[in-house]
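Human:
Care to share another protein and its fold?

Assistant:
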Amino acid sequence: MVWKKTKYSGWGRVQHATAELARPERARSLKAVVETHPCPAIGNCRSYGDAALNDGGRAIDMTRMNRIIDFDAGSGVVTVEAGITIGDLAHVFAPRGWLPAVMPGTGFATVGGCIAQDVHGKNHHNEGSFGQHVLSVTLLTGDKRTVATPSRNASLFRATMGGIGQTGVIAEAKLQLKPCPGDVMMVTERRAEDWDDHIALLDGSQATYCVGWIDTTAKGAALGRGVIEEAELAAGLLPKAKPSKKIPLDAPKFALSNPVVRAFNNAYYRRVPGSGRSSVKRIDDFFFPLDKIHDWNRLYGKRGFYQFQNVVPLDQADALKAMLELIAGAGLSSPLAVLKRMGSGRAGHMSFPMEGYTLAVDFPARDAAVDLIAMLEDMTMDAGGRLYLAKDALATGPAIKAMYPEHGDWVKQVNKADPDHALETDMVRRLNLREAG
């Protein structure tokens, strides 16, 4: 196996690593690499921070391990290699009446990455997290090949879902897809005039898929305004695909200055009529709206950006509102901000979801943003919430361990599965996650 010295980064482009990467193409090659050079596995590096980085070490690039191994058209059960992307699964199976039960905001996420972060989607309040639809996972550690399911090697399975790749290299997974009537979406958009209206619309939604875009520059009576998007899968005439765009250069700093963001957000809010509107969209346009803009992370300039995402319990909506007030007053956020209501579904010890409200906001990488995110972290902990490791680049280890009460159980399982700590990444070391307490 050829190892190539490579510089790579998380999607936020703030943290970088230089490591030797191998790209196996067959199961036997992957097995040989794990046996001789155990190290973390990575996918398309769509986690925003340092979850996939291993600076100064080695990593296994799984993106060529992307085959469909088996599919049962009657039950919707599919077995795949871990490097296949969610977008590819949707494109292959939606026309055949099946869809991944949970899809994150990008179709470029690999199945292995979705398991490692136990990702959630716009239907979390109905379908729970990705790991709850995983029927089995095949893990490679040294010369061992272990199959874990919710009932067989159940403790290892739970430590793997949301386990940041620390229980072994995920080679294969068996997934339960959900039936879908077609490959289009019926989408309804409505304005939320302020915070209370936004929360009420999220709470009252009966739609299968529901997400809110929130204007993080709005203040005063308009604080929390945004657009609620609800959707259902449907059969119908497939809309014409939109052409892809590419960001060829890093954008200048003024491109996301506060006046520019305020003007964009105002226009984006008002593009939806006061009476609302309905439309038909392609599946990928609804689930992965930013994937049509390749390298959109370059819009934040060469310094990159941080994404802050937290979740707080339902009875802490006022605490989240206070965070939004702090964000609006700071004048640092970008147009990309999302508010959703989550259910209780989670599959692993370190899975992010809890029943409550989740807020995700992008900030250009500036010193003031680091200070702001530190304050938001403290407020999240005080509210009994938690931060999402797939998005984190700045959290502290004691805070994360306090936010995840099952962390100690996870530590026992991962240190048993990987006693030599060969699978540690920069994030794991930064947060000292492999140590209890």
